[in-house]
Amino acid sequence: MPVDRQPTLKVSLQQSRPISLDANFECSNAELLALTGPSGSGKTTVLRAIAGLHRVTRGRIVCNNKLWQDGEKQLFVSPQQRRVGLVFQHYALFPHLTVLENVTTAMSHVTRNHRAGKAMEWLRLTNMEGLHKQQPHRLSGGQRQRVALARALAREPDVLLLDEPFSAVDQLTREKLYRELAQIRATLNVPMILVTHDMLEVQQLADSLCLMHHGKTMQTGPVTQVMRKPDNARIARLLGHKNLYAGLYQRQRQHGTLDILGTQLQVGNLMDASSRVDALITPSAIIMHRTDKPSNGERENPIVTRVVESVELGDELSMKLLVEATGDTIAFRVSRHVAMRNKVVIGGKLVVSILPEGIHLMPAYEHNQHTLTQQAPVAETQS
Amino acid sequence: MSPFWLSIKLAFWTTIILVPAGLLIGRALAYWQFVGKSWVEALVYLPLVLPPTVLGYYLLVSLSPNSAFGSAVASILGAPLVFSFPALVLASLIVNLPFAVQPAQQAFAAIAEDTREAAWVSGLSSLQTFIRIELPQCWLGILCAATLTFAHTLGEFGVVLMVGGNIAGETRTLSIAIYDSVQSFDMDAAGWMTAGLLLFSITALAIVRVAGINSRASR
């Protein structure tokens, strides 16, 4: 469904206690915005504030041109009056009610005679129609979450809020739920906010991303843009990027160069003036040279490294390469068969190329070497 | 009225009044955070540790027509409250307060917070959430509170003796009758009455246990 560009949900929240909050973002109809950040960054607090379950001292929440909260006017609309669909992390089903009754409980806006029939439609949409007489304790985690989603949708909400809905289910169920949510969201025309700290989930499900840290929104935008072009090194690190380097960017007449990793790299995305910068090498920009024969593009920003770490992760090899000239490391992943074909061994020499377009430059934030969290980039091999 | 039926009557009124009150107090203690909450809890649970005779003494003194409160009550009711059935009920309500409040408080505290929030977000008012979401999940706590209150009232001795005296047909309850029987060496009567109380207490506790096990099995 095409995204309606007029933002339907506008959130601007500030508070100093119990946790500091300075969150500002917007979300349009049919848009799924992922609210992400490390634990304790305030994302669930923001979600609860949108639902009316947490009262923030200052700020405004507007949804569908309806004012839900305004700190200046001392206005606060109760959760009952907001028409919010909220899917809780641990389902929060009513344990004494059947699946069908759980869903009809959220349908006070529908006449009593039509509730059961309408609830069955929501259960059909979430693939739960045959289990409507069951009680929640007889259901699996995935089934409970489907009921929770059906209940949230049955409210016919102005905004759908998903609070880490996949964190309590196993990997297999999670992938099924991803597919089902992707199908269901195509039928919805309301703003959707997904709270998660799983970047893979963000990339698979969300249209846009709002990164939070210490209660503050750091950067908001389309997922691919934020992921590939973070505003600064701090944001890049919070997004899980590893290959971050501080260096000197020099603007030439037709191109730019960057002094990092003991060499001068050609840069594809130009900045206006020479300056100290932080550089992010995006995962797809690292290309491993073949060891058995010359590859195309070997002259493109080549860097000689030594393999210092190699860990098998499923079908991939997660490697750390040492640039001996500077002591910097480059982290990346490569398919196992590619590594085998190129006889990658710990201590062995390996040459990689950095594609100029894959180097993202940011204004200097901190001038230190970064090695951080989460997955390493996946490398490609030239043929 | 025989001591047996008097005890049943006392337990009935105590349970009928105390269980709803305990439910509301227990809910408030489970959900509300306020300054001095620990002191309020200490006051509610005081009868658990306070010797019944001590509590009985204070009640006797405060309900006596010689006290300001007691004389005020006597002028309203037309007769002193002490050594009457209503005095027994009042004393019983105070003594049994923790037995009604604690199960209720635990039952409300056991309800997941997000379940209540889900109810609010689903459009249910606070009252609707209480009736449709909280109460059905608290039935075991309510049963437990009612059973414990009823059983404990049947067996209460110290306070009942202090506040009610030992007036046949008016305030002589089963436990006082047992004491009287032993004092007059009527061991057969005492034996039957104690066996009856023992059987009732065991049955009451078994009901609560079985209900608890069944409830956990269905979660």
Number of individual domains of chain A: 2
How widely separated are the two ends of chain B?
Answer: 45 Å
Sequence stretches where pLDDT stays below 50 over 5 or more residues of chain A: 367-383
State the total count of DSSP E strands of chain B.
0
**How many beta strands in the DSSP annotation of chain A?**
22
Classified in CATH, the superfamily of chain B is: MetI-like
Main beta-sheet strand count, sense and barrel state of chain A = 6 strands, mixed
* Count of discrete alpha- or pi-helical segments spanning 4 or more residues of chain A: 9
Task: Tell me, briefly, the overall form of chain A.
Answer: globular
Q: Which fold does the CATH topology of the largest domain in chain A refer to?
A: Rossmann fold
* Residue-averaged pLDDT of chain A: 87
Number of helices of chain B: 12
Mean pLDDT of chain B: 87
Rg calculated over all Cα atoms of chain B? 20 Å
By CATH, the topology of chain B is: MetI-like fold
Tell me the fraction of residues in β-strands of chain B, as a range: under 5%
Alpha-beta classification of chain B: mainly alpha
The fraction of residues assigned to DSSP E strands of chain A is 25-35%
